[in-house]
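Margin note from the TA: students keep mixing up input and output lines. Inputs are the sequences; the output is the structure of the whole complex. Example:
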Amino acid sequence: MQKTLKKYFPFFALPTVIAFAIAFAVPFLMGIYLSFTKFTTVTNSQWVGLSNYIRAFTEDQDFLNALIFTTKFTVVSVVLINVIAFVIALLLTRGIRGTNVFRTVFFMPNLIGGIVLGYIWQLIINGVLFKFGVDITFSSTYGFWGLVVLMNWQMVGYMMIIYVAGIQNISPDLMEAAEIDGASSWQVLKNVTIPMVMPSITICTFLTLTNSFKLFDQNFALSGGAPAKSSSMLALDIFSTFYGRNGYEGVGQAKAVVFFIMVALIALIQLRLTRSKEVEN
Amino acid sequence: MRSAKSKQLDNMIFVVLTVMSILFMAPILIVLMNSFKGRFFISDTPFDLPNSQTFVGIKNYFTGIEKTGFFSAFGYSLFITVFSVLAIVLFTSMTAWYITRVKTKSTKVLYYAFVFSMIVPFDMVMFTMSKIANMLHLDNPIGIILIYLGFGAGLSVFIFSGFVKSIPLDIEEAATIDGCNPLQTFFRIVLPILKPTAITVAILNAMWVWNDYRLPYLLIGSSFKTIPIAVQSLQGGYGSKDMGAMMAMLVLAIVPIVVFYLSCQKYIIKGVVAGAVKG
């Protein structure tokens, strides 16, 4: 069968391969090359070596500030989202009435797009801050916590659903055995539930980690980086380097390459952790 | 004794969850409420109910629709999402089957290229991809479908391949012996088996394409606005934006999502769980 099928490459694989080459492979390779050049469109590049990379870090503090802001934001939201989602999942797996309605409500914000989410929360946060005579553009602290609240609102329901699936997979015998042995509910949680949902914890950590680190739309709409770029995350800083200033295309591309390497490292480290956990289970 | 105690606890949890649900719905309800208030009564007092002085009926909806061209934005969003998702599901399932069944060096390279593309952030290819798309005249609502197919291929091929590996070869071999050519085998035998996975892939991609902002903005945003671009276009210069129109457009942007969610909730929840576990 393999032999006949092989001849069908143009039917089965070619359309995807062409689209993949145009939308991903060629732009990716060109992006790496262009990060070492000076260019305004992609056809007029001049080799400049590492100078774009040096300019990205030394010409101003924007990229470093964005890196610090992004790292802080990612740590805080990964922890908060996962803790809250896990607690809600525990509450929703007790078989109390209304479980389905609660699940429906908690998950819904996840489907709303980042731009729309950003403006919804801009209204609410500015409404609260107005009572103190300021708005979200006054300090990056407001932009930071606003984004944390927004991200929790968006992702808690999604993570909760993955945790619920994980908790429901635990065999009831195991729970019963623990209860018969006289384990308190805290001991059951610590020694049975959490170890058994470890795969879900890894998936959820991975999803919240990469989604928070790569965040653009919500950041762009909520505070737009204000005041003076201090609440810019990495993706927004790269976007404004490309499209907000003339002559910085090369620097923008160099920042994008650095960003890609960071995302890839995070993903690989996380994958390795997943694998090591999977062996234990 | 124990059951009475745990019943009390369950009641407490019920109350806590109810309060949380109300808090979760509040942001959307606040936006809805403000969409009926005059544009100057929104930013400062978003938590006040409309009163005889601030209530303007559906005037904001008219201004918003006019300013953003909402209905054409809805049309472009729908067109691009439906056809991108169809293209992704059809072509990536075919590709996944091919590269899983034909075991050569080049299919192996292709598979790893697709997997690799999943960890590359959009920022990395944003500039070069939009320039190439311009050069190839893909900067229109039809061309962008090809771009979505290419950029969405990684995750979708990966999810489909994982599932194809679990289909026993015997079934396909039997079909071949019965005289099916590979196209017939795929469409009559393999694709029906892949249906649950296809739903997962469709839902994950639909959520992405419908809400995507940067790709359509960079490629077609100046001539063809999708919903996120239409909403963003109301931002304008700082301070000059019409908050009334903004509230009305936020409501109009959320309504189709809520309708879609409530009508296919079962598939959506199953799809995102399956997608998360496999991805």
